[in-house]
Amino acid sequence: MDSLLIAPRNKKELRxxxxxxKKMGIATKSLTLEEKEDIGLVMAMKEVDRSxxxxxxxxxQKLRA
Length: 65
Description:
single chain, 55% helix
């Protein structure tokens, strides 16, 4: 089943949404800032063009710069 990610604007709104979902019997989970960043990183990684290859030398040059 799909999931829904909701970003409330403040703590009061978060509490209200959580309470409504709880009364409806819908499970919720709060995400930490680190978890949200991880999700963003995964999404960015999925969008990467993997058809192009880069040499190891070029990567090492960029890392040294």
